[in-house]
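[Meeting: bench + compute handoff]

Bench side (C.D.) handed over the final construct sequence. Compute side (W.E.) agreed to return the predicted structure before the next meeting so the bench team could plan truncations. Sequence as handed over:
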Amino acid sequence: MSGRAKKLIFLLLGIVLLFPGLGLAQKEAVVARLEGPINPATSSYVRRALEIGEERNAEVIVIEIDTPGGLATSMKSIVKEIMNSRVPVITYVSPKGAGAASAGVLITIAGHLAAMAPGTNIGAAHPVNVGGKDMDKTMTEKVLNDMVSYARSIAKERGRNEEWVEKAVRESASITSEVALRERVVDIISEDIDSLLEAIDGREVTLKGEIRRLETKGCVIHYFRPSWRDRLLITISDPNIAYILMMIGLAGIYFELSHPGAIFPGVIGGISLILAFYSFQTLPVNYAGLLLVILSVALFILEIKVQSYGMLSLGGILSLVLGSIMLFEDLKVSLKLLIPTVLGITAFFVIVTGLAIKAVWRRPLTGKEGLVGEVGVAKTSIARQGKVFVHGEYWNAQSEEPIGEGEEVVVIGMEGLLLKVKKKE
């Protein structure tokens, strides 16, 4: 072997010794953040985060949780994705001050390992107002028992405290991170993602019926951020935002219909209405409430055409209020938003309707009808016919009474281009 070849080999060995990870695939940890109300948009985001983790062959997927809860259907969708993931999922209530309430409890305990940051809490998982209406005692017990059995089955699968989980659902129990660790609700308390990955290194989890040892120390962290589409969908999936968009849309379309040619209100209304209907597909919409809101707009429009002495407007206001209250099941529009919005939109409809009614019943200002009643001056004496100056123009006119030159006349009719006039009294 030549000296040059030996030098090359020693150089390569030195590089390998100095950089042992060079040329080797480094393990990754995919981190996604579940923040805010749980709805179909957040469910879709979490599902894609798990898919990314599988595609990148990640060592673990960490889901940071800070949620007040949300839709049961979306929660169950997330839990199902976690339970069937081919990559170990670590649920982590973080940062300090965060909480996993209601549906967030079941998502947390569904993780292969569950962790919390200091100063966080978990609990209060009692189902609230399911179906968007008051339930009788029997139905309430059915829903509650179903949620309890679902929660216990998840806790049993993950080896966690089934009794406390049932207590969280039945009695809305809530505990701190320290108590959660002591009660075997979670497995670890960690300050941040880095310390969490170090803490779970070497731990064993059951994945698809097989024991897997985690090797997370030194993992490269890949943060899975929401795309602009995710952010838009999550934003408009808020029932308050969806409600405002619908109100703006209906108001804009109504203004355009009552004042054709305005254009701008119609464009804004159309865009807002499309966004509202797009968000409705991610929300539990009560279609009876939606129809009541649409009916209210129809009643306001009819008020312009029909003399109901305010009865149609009153019906429109009542329909708008009831529809707004009934619009969403499970999730509710905030009363602090609903009341001023209903009052503002009602005032808008009433004012625009009043202006439209005035426009409909106002005396015409142009054309044949607009000339009747106009005052002019006789430019010639009128025995049977003559000329008058009316509305800035000279007209041939006739009168059944003599009118002297320079006298004021009033238009009482029109035949073709001939005005019928009389002396102004």
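W.E. noted at the follow-up: The two ends are 130 Å apart (CA to CA). C.D. will use this when planning the next construct.
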